[in-house]
């Protein structure tokens, strides 16, 4: 499709294999980049305005420029393929469908930052993507696109796969590095930032899968070409993972700045029959929930922020009018309680307290004071946690109470969830028969 | 059993040699151990510690941090059902209750015949095809109760000595 960059080759049969990939212009940007100086490559990426697609949205070219020169230490590139933010499932498709695109972007990035060794840290549950990438790596080594002196250019580049083992916190870049070093994945104190002291205390750049997949296209076509999509501050396209109560959930790559309702209705097929839109989480579980009346916005970093949420990982979770917001908040806080690494008190204790209170509200109604107590706890966590996991774990609670306080109150009055579990009766029947 | 076999030790050695620092091989090494015995035994922890040059306590601390390693024998067929929001919006709670009934155990327990265990896990990164379950190497997506019912019946009829089916996370060392 005309508006796709990283998904633009998905329709080509066999694009997963190196032959078809090469026939379709694959690895061209490696040759081009290796004829440029690292600074020229960085400048091109800077000019494109590409921002990190892993969640924080940090400008990629600028990040690369932070790597010091001539440190005498090896430099490393690490691709973050931990993809564990609830609602996000785009990197999986990028890796499974077009693995060489990622490897190509990584080789170019290695050249830009002076690295000869790179790792792809893939969440352990992604056995499928790991297998596909392993095969792609075999092919790339065999054809001389990886290894020593690639394509006779004199540039050495090695990429290895590293499976994670089930821990959301390992998606946070400094925890990821600890995990890659064979430790528990605990966030590190910053500074020093990884660009200066990262893997094995050497300069390290960590980039998301989607970020790196954009790189070959920017090098091949130029920064201005990339800027034909998106807005001034949010150039390019973005993959939105749409899930929940829509007719056609899936990954959709659209220009940044596309209206949310266009994505929801024209791409994702709209809300399922007989229901209406209630709420959207636009950027993965860590960002505030938007009520339907605030969904008339464009999907770019600035507009979503102005509406009170964030673009985050662009994992869009859609909820219709059958959804109880206390139940939804309990579900998400359960996630953060489970994934808190336990290193700092506000997060470890705060997520546990929030969960207990939300569970009471949902099951037996709790007490009227509990709603303000929840807000009090979030206040004591906001900005006081060691890493963003704790700080963002409050998003669904704060926005939930802000927009649906009456639902929280109804739980107290009703002594539990008034929308109690549809479908329970049918289920009993099915299980009894089974 | 229990201690690493010669071939497992060689695999760990080979993996360790790929990294600038050997300790980085710890997570992959724990997968080698788990593949051998179905869980990570204390003896394997000692062996891995020896090969990588770190203390057994450190290895144990790492193994217990990550949810994909087991420190006890688990069912031969382990289902990991996602319970996080997108899946919950699309029927994960029904899937979980169905499994409780059908298998007669709660999440985290193994059936008396040692065949099945199911766990409720956090987001598997496949939310667009909710509800989702990881079993063996495969994601079961847009999972229905019928499909699950048939799968369990089929697995129940398998011979009692069939090997454990778990995610295979070894052998990912494309030459480099
Ligand atoms: C708790 C937590 C989890 C994260 N998980 C991921 C993840 O799964 N994948 C990812 O690319 N970035 C994740 N990030 C963001 C990374 O720390 C980092 O910003 C990103 O990988 C940088 O790459 P980018 O600049 O290309 O986006 C996470 C951050 C936090 C705080
Ligand atoms: S905020 Fe949570 S995840 Fe982050 S360091 Fe503290 S305890 Fe760990
Ligand atoms: S919420 Fe179930 S796979 Fe993401």
What's the count of strands of chain A?
11
Q: Spans of chain A of 5+ residues with little confidence (pLDDT < 50)?
A: 422-434
Instruction: Report the portion of residues of chain A in β strands.
Output: 5-15%
With helices defined by DSSP (H or I, 4 residues minimum), what is the helix count of chain B?
7
Distance between the termini of chain B: 31 Å
Order of helices and strands of chain A: HHHHEHHEHEHEHHEEEHEEEHEHHHHHH
Structural class of chain A: alpha/beta
DSSP helix fraction of chain B: 40-55%
The interface involving the most residues is between: A-B, 73 and 61 residues
Percent of sequence in beta strands of chain B: 5-15%
Biggest sheet strand line-up of chain A: 6-5-11-8-9
Please provide a written account of the structure.
The complex is a heterodimer of chains A (434) and B (176). Chain A is of the alpha/beta class. Chain A has 18 helices and eleven strands. Chain A has helices spanning 18-23, 28-34, 38-48, 60-65, 90-97, 99-113, 127-142, 173-180, 209-221, 223-226, 260-267, 301-306, 325-339, 345-363, 369-381, 388-392, 395-414, 424-433, and strands at 75-81, 115-122, 158-163, 204-208, 237-244, 250-255, 258-259, 277-281, 290-291, 298-299, 315-320. A five-stranded mixed beta sheet of chain A has the order 6-5-11-8-9, covered by helices on one side. The model of chain A is unreliable at 422-434 (pLDDT under 50). Chain B is an alpha+beta fold. Chain B has a four-stranded mixed beta sheet with strand order 2-1-3-4, with helices on one face. In chain B, β3 and β4 (138-140) form a beta hairpin. The radius of gyration of chain B is 18 Å and the shape is globular. Chain B starts with 5 loop residues before the first helix and ends in a 20-residue tail after the last helix. Classes of the chains: A alpha/beta (434), B alpha+beta (176). The structure holds flavin mononucleotide, iron/sulfur cluster and FE2/S2 (inorganic) cluster (FES). FE2/S2 (inorganic) cluster (FES) is lined by residues 82, 84-87, 123-127, 130, 132 of chain B.
């Amino acid at each position: 499709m005309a508006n796709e960059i990283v998904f633009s080759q998905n329709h080509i049969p066999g694009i997963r294999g190196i032959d078809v990939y090469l026939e379709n212009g694959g690895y061209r940007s490696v040759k081009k980049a290796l004829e440029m100086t690292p600074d020229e490559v960085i400048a091109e990426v800077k000019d494109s305005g590409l921002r990190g697609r892993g969640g924080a949205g940090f400008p990629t070219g600028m990040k690369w420029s932070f790597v010091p020169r001539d440190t005498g230490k090896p430099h490393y590139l690490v691709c973050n393929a931990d993809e564990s933010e609830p609602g996000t499932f785009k990197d999986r498709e990028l890796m499974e469908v077009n693995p060489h695109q990622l490897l190509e972007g990584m080789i170019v990035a290695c050249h830009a930052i002076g690295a000869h060794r790179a790792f792809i840290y893939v969440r352990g549950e992604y056995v499928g993507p790991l297998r596909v990438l392993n095969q792609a790596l075999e092919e790339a080594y065999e054809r001389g696109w990886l290894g020593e002196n690639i394509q006779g250019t004199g540039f050495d580049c090695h990429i290895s796969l590293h499976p994670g083992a089930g821990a959301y916190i390992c998606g946070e870049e400094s925890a990821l590095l600890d995990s890659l070093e064979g430790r528990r994945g605990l966030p590190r104190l910053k500074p020093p930032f990884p660009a200066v002291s990262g893997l094995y205390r050497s300069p390290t750049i960590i980039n998301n899968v989607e970020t790196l997949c954009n790189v070959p296209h920017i090098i091949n076509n130029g920064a201005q070409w990339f800027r034909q999509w998106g807005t001034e501050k949010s150039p390019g396209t973005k993959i939105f993972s749409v899930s929940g109560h829509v007719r056609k959930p899936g990954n959709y790559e659209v220009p940044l700045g596309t209206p949310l309702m266009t994505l929801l209705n024209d791409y994702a097929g709209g809300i399922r029959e007989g229901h209406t839109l209630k709420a959207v989480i636009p950027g993965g579980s860590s960002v505030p929930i938007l009520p339907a009346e605030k969904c008339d916005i464009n999907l770019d970093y600035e507009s979503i922020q102005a509406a009170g949420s964030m673009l985050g990982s662009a994992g869009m979770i859609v909820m219709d009018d059958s959804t109880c917001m206390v139940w939804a908040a309990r579900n998400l806080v359960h996630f953060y309680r489970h994934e808190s690494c336990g290193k700092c008190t506000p997060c470890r204790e705060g997520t546990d307290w929030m969960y207990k209170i939300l569970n009471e509200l949902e099951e037996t109604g709790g007490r009227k004071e509990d709603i303000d107590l929840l807000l009090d706890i979030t206040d004591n966590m906001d900005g006081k946690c060691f890493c963003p996991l704790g700080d963002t774990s409050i998003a669904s609670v704060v926005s939930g109470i802000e927009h649906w306080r009456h639902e929280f109150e109804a739980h107290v009055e009703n002594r539990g969830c008034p929308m109690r579990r549809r479908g329970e009766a049918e289920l009993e029947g099915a299980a009894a028969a089974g | 059993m229990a201690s690493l076999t010669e071939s497992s030790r060689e695999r760990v050695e080979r993996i360790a040699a790929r990294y600038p620092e050997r300790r980085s091989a710890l997570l992959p090494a724990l997968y080698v151990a788990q593949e051998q015995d179905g869980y990570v035994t204390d003896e394997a922890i000692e062996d891995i510690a020896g090969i990588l040059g770190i203390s057994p306590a450190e290895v144990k601390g790492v193994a217990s941090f990550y949810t994909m390693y087991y420190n006890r024998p688990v069912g031969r067929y382990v289902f990991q059902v996602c319970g996080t929001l997108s899946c919950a919006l699309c029927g994960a709670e029904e899937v979980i209750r169905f499994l409780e009934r059908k298998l007669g155990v709660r999440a985290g327990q193994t059936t008396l015949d040692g065949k099945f265990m199911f766990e409720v896990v956090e987001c598997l990164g496949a939310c667009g095809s909710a509800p989702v379950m990881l079993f063996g190497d495969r994601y079961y997506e847009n999972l229905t109760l019928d499909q699950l019912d048939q799968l369990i019946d089929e697995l129940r009829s398998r011979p009692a000595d069939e090997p454990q089916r778990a995610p295979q996370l070894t052998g990912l060392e494309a030459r480099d």
